[in-house]
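Exercise 7.
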Amino acid sequence: MQTSEKIRQAIADKPLGAVFSSADFLSLGSRAAVDQALFRMMKAGLIERVARGLYVTAGQRVDAQSIAHAMAQKTGEKVGLAPAGGAEDLLVMPTSGLSRTVKAAGHTVQFRRMSPRKLQLAASPKGRILLELWTQGMQNLTTLDIQRATGDWAEGEMDNYAALIPAWLRTVIHQANATRKSIKIGLSGAYDWSNPNIKDDVLIGHVLEKHKFEDVARLCFYYGVPKVKRVFKRCAFEPMTSASVTRMLGNISKGLRAAKEPSNA
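Solution. The predicted structure, written as C-alpha cells, is:
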C-alpha cells in the first residue's frame, strides 16, 4: 500500500473533528512523502488546513481544544488544562513552550508559558483549582473561596500537590478547612466562626461572656476548671455577668468533685 493510501486510512480512522499534522503519519513514510500526500489531499478537497501545518477532514467542525493539542503535539511542548469559565471565543492554554496567540478555524488559542510547577498543576482538574487559588494571591483569597474550592476534598488529598504549591497556600487551605475548636468542644454556638486558629483564652473569654451554663460546663470538661477560672479572673465583665459565671463555675466544680467521690451505696 502506498504512503498516500496509508495516510487516507489513518485519517479515516480518526474521530470527527480531529486535527492532525504530518507528525502524526511519519511512521507511514518519509517526511517528504507525508507532506506531499497531505498537500495532494488538500488540493483534492479531502482535507482542509486550519492553521500552518494542521489539517482536518473536509467539512468537519473543529474545536479550539483539538487545535491546541494538535499544535502541542506538533511542537513537542507540554500543555495543561484550560481554566474553567473562560471566554467562549478564547481558549487559554498553559504551556511549556513560548507564549503566543494562534487564530485558526474561527478560534483564538492563547498559549501562556508557565513554570514547571504550575504546568504540572494545570495537568489535572484539582491541580487546576489550586493553580487558580495561587493565581488569585493570598491578599485576595477569602476563607469562603478556599472552602468552596477544596472543602469536599478527601483527607490527605492535598498531600498529592504539597510539593507543587507555595507554603502560604498550603497554610491557608489547612486553616480554612480545619475543624473549629467550638465544634471539637461541642459548644452550642460557633464562637470562633471567623478564625479557625482562635487562641484558647480568647475562646474561653467569649463563652464566659455569654455565660450559657451548658457551654461553660463543656469548657470545664474540655480545658479543666482551673484553666477556665484563670481566664475568668483576667476578664473584665459586667457585675451581673461576673456573678453569674462565678455561680456557674462553683456549681460545676461541686458537680465534678461529687462525680469523682466514691459512692456510699
